[in-house]
Amino acid sequence: MYFFLFLFFNVKDSPVVNIVEDVSNAKDESKSNDTVCKEDCEESCDVKTKIAREEKHFMCRNLQSSIVSYTRSTKKLLRNMMDEQQASLDYLSNQVNELMNRVLLLTTEVFRKQLDPFPHRPVQSHGLDCTDIKDTIGSVSKTPSGLYIIHPEGSSYPFEVMCDMDYRGGGWTVIQKRIDGIIDFQRLWCDYLDGFGDLLGEFWLGLKKIFYIVNQKNTSFMLYVSLESEDDTLAYASYDNFWLEDETRFFKMHLGRYSGNAGDAFRGLKKEDNQNAMPFSTSDVDNDGCLPTCLVNGQSVKSCSHLNNKTGWWFNQCGLANLNGIHHFPGKLLATGIQWGTWTKN
Fold first, then answer.
1. Which residue(s) pair with 299 in the sheet?
2. Of 121, 150, 124, whose CA–CA distance to 214 is shortest?
3. Alpha helices in the chain (DSSP H)
4. pLDDT band at residue 28, thresholds of 50, 70 and 90?
5. Residue 306 burial (C-beta neighbours within 10 Å; 0-12, 13-18, 19+)
6. Shortest CA distance to 178 belongs to which of 205, 159, 160?
7. What positions does the domain Fibrinogen C-terminal occupy (predicted)?
């Protein structure tokens, strides 16, 4: 058996009550302190969170900016590389096309010489020129076009020429022919003096030989220029009373009346274009009338031959005609080439 005696009814001096009240007050103060600490912690956490968020945003912005910058620089680098590659491809393509054109031209020339080497062998005939041969032999039998030996008055030796016996009645002595650009016309005075090329293909007969032909006594010669464009359009320019002065006058050219449908490029459109009565010029023998320079299309020019890729012709500041200019390959435009400036197809 347990027995308890309670003595709690004495209120006057009750320590228990005080203890209880003190404990209650302490609890209230503790709750207040906890609230303050909690508020301080929440504010500190908010600040840290805000700082962390701003740092995260800053890092994201920097990363995004770096990615954009890297992407742009990479695109630019790739674009430059592609442009360089395309330029290289274009250059190689042009080189291949030019080489293919050269191979095709050379192959054609080889086949032409292999297939028919005999019909064009020179006929042993010492006529004065092709017209004389046609009039002499043609009265007996039909005279074919081909190589013939002529011996003009005044010449100390005979030489071969190409005679066209078919074109416009025949009897034409061919003094120059351009076909495919195989023969180089960028030559010095000595070559233009004696002649060069292949009489069965492209050639320049030579100033001395032309002089002997067109300066025979009691004979008048016609200069006939036959032109053909890349699209097979034909045109011509004809001049009567064609003759040359001798070598001491640098084979100064003289032309008579013009007729044709290609225009009179020798006399040109202006006074300063007139190439009639001009001496022959090359890159090393300059007689082009540029003293000391000429103004050609707004460009100051010292030598018409140099302007025309070192080819030879009867230049005059520099004129509208140059049938010895470098050959134009199809689709390739050049600043200067074979020129007949009064023909729209030129």
1. 296
2. 150
3. 15-115, 130-137, 189-194, 207-214, 304-307
4. low
5. middle
6. 205
7. 121-346
Question: Is the peptide bond between 122 and the residue preceding it cis, with omega within 30 degrees of 0?
Answer: no
pLDDT tens readout for residues 266-282: 999 988 889 999 999 99
Contact 165, 124 (CB under 8 A): no
Which residues contact residue 39 at a Cβ distance below 8 angstroms, ignoring those fewer than 6 apart? Answer: none
pLDDT at 15: 42
What is the number of residues in the chain? 346
Q: What are phi and psi of 222, to 5 degrees?
A: -110, 135
Does residue 113 contact residue 122 with C-beta atoms inside 8 Å? no
Give the position of tokens 């010489």. Answer: 113
Chain mean position to CA 75: 30
> Where are the chain's structural domains?
175-340
Mean pLDDT of 323-327: 91
> CATH code for 175-340?
3.90.215.10
**Structural tokens at position 134:** 């046609």
E-strand stretches of 281-342 = 294-296, 299-301, 321-322, 339-340
What one-letter code names the amino acid at 102? R
> Is residue 279 within 8 Å of residue 252, measured between CB atoms?
yes
Residue 279, pLDDT score? 97
Indicate the burial class of 77 (C-beta count within 10 angstroms; 0-12, 13-18, 19 or more): exposed
User: For position 112, what pLDDT does the model report?
Assistant: 59
In this predicted structure, the answer to whether residue 93 has a pLDDT above a threshold of 80 is yes
Rounded to whole angstroms, the Cα distance separating 271 from 307 reads 20
* Res. 179: pLDDT tops 60: yes
Q: Is the dihedral of CA 319, 211, 261, 199 positive or negative?
A: negative
Rounded Cα distance between 162 and 176, Å, is: 9
The first and second tokens of residue 175, run together, are 């003094």
The residue whose two tokens read 């070192």 is 310
DSSP E strands, 205-293: 223-228, 234-239, 243-244, 253-254, 258-260
How many angstroms separate the CA atoms of 340 and 306, rounded? 18
Say which range, 5-9, 31-35, 57-61, has the weakest mean pLDDT.
5-9
